[in-house]
Write a structure and sequence with these properties.
Length: about 400
């Protein structure tokens, strides 16, 4: 199962990003996250349904995952292959046929095919005669790819730093410690899964309008506050039983809502789109390794942290990591909304020092004047990115050299 999960995490977001049009790529790739949280919710449902079946309950809980997996396997059979992958294999006729299935009109298909082909040929010329390992090295040595690697690694690491998986892995344990019975904890975990599903849906409409970077910058401070509040609620040991249970569940759910509106959908979606076509598989494999490695570290260390630091201390530790993750996102994650995969070359061609200088000297002062000081008639500063502040329809109509 671990091998399958690792392969799925690395391939499905790339596959979705390469199929989707730029204008709605964020929403379409984000369906991956929506169905991940839907699967988590179905897992909690299975736990509740078979909880009274006796000694075989754990077998039924594990085995129930076969049902959606079998349906998914059948659906994959009818899915078009990625045209950009086919192009890399020299199968240009099949790549164009795939674009015809994935676009609304043959002219749009021809435009996207031509644009992708021209960029790929240029990337292949620059890359030269490379292999898997040399392309992996490029992710750390070539400035444009290294900056993309910084951003993707940041959002992947931030997904573990934020603490969501201590809730996903140990929600029932946390709720039992708060005062629930085992059965009540299962139902509380079911509610946690439902919250994730419901509040991931609004992000489908915001990720391509609000943007990936902005969603993370808004939600991480709130995640810090709610996670710290949940930990502090565990301190209350006296009084009525509900005096502790209610606040803990409330703040865990509020934390989950913020995660579902920001970091949850962004991490894999962002990582799948920022690397060039030539290095996309290697870059995505590396950042998925970071994500899964630290997920394993978290799952092993959190029970011990609860013992040594107390649950409140463990929650407070991850609340502090949320603030560190916010700073990392501010420094290394660049906006990618409504840009084609090829246009992202321009976004990551800007040096990091220049990007940070612009953010601290232009973007932050403008934000403070507009949203805090409420100053009117401000001129919106032009983006540092050559194409990031243009209207998508205008870019689509612009002649391609």
């Amino acid at each position: 199962m671990g091998i399958g999960i690792g392969a799925k995490n690395a391939t499905v977001p790339i596959f979705s990003a390469e199929l989707a049009p730029a204008r709605v790529r964020g929403a379409l790739v984000m369906f991956w996250q929506l169905w991940v949280v839907a699967g988590i919710f179905l897992g909690f449902c299975a736990n509740v349904i078979v909880k009274d079946t006796g000694a075989i309950a754990w077998r039924l809980q594990l085995g129930s995952a076969f049902i959606p997996a079998f349906i998914l396997m059948l659906g994959i059979w009818f899915t078009p292959e990625s045209p950009r992958w086919l192009m890399k294999k020299g199968r240009h006729d099949a790549a164009f046929a795939s674009f015809l299935k994935l676009r609304a009109h043959p002219i749009i298909s021809a435009r996207d095919f031509y644009y992708s082909h021209v960029i790929y040929v240029e990337e292949a010329r620059v890359a030269g005669d490379t292999n898997y390992f040399s392309r992996m090295r490029d992710c750390f040595t070539i400035p444009r790819i290294r900056r993309a690697n910084y951003g993707a690694s940041t959002v992947m690491l931030a997904q573990q730093m934020c603490g969501i998986n201590i809730i996903s892995f140990y929600s029932s344990t946390i709720f039992v410690r708060a005062g629930y019975s085992d059965t009540e904890a299962l139902y509380a975990s079911l509610g946690y899964g439902a919250v994730q599903v419901v509040f991931t849906i609004p992000t489908l409409f915001m990720i391509d309008t609000v943007g990936r970077r902005r969603l993370c910058l808004i939600t991480f401070p709130l995640m810090c506050v709610f996670l710290l509040a949940a930990g502090l609620s565990l301190l209350k040991q006296d009084g009525p039983r509900g005096a502790q249970i209610g606040p803990v569940v409330l703040f865990v759910y509020l934390f989950t809502i913020m995660y579902s509106l920001g970091e949850g959908p962004v991490a894999f979606q962002y990582s799948a789109e920022v690397f060039p076509n030539i290095q996309r598989e290697q870059g995505m494999a590396f950042v998925v390794f970071i994500n899964n490695f630290f997920a394993g570290v978290l799952s092993i260390t959190f029970p011990r942290m609860q013992t040594v630091m107390t649950p409140t201390g463990a929650f407070g530790f991850y609340a502090g990591l949320n603030l560190i993750a916010w700073g990392m996102i501010f420094c290394f994650v660049r906006e990618t909304k409504q840009l084609t995969l090829e246009e992202l070359d321009q976004v990551f061609s800007v040096p990091t020092a220049e990007f940070l200088s612009y953010e601290t000297k232009v973007s932050v002062p403008y934000f403070i004047k507009k949203n805090i000081l409420r100053q009117r008639n401000l001129t919106k500063p032009r983006s540092i990115m050559p194409v990031a502040d243009e209207d998508y329809s205008a870019r689509s109509a612009r002649p391609r050299a």
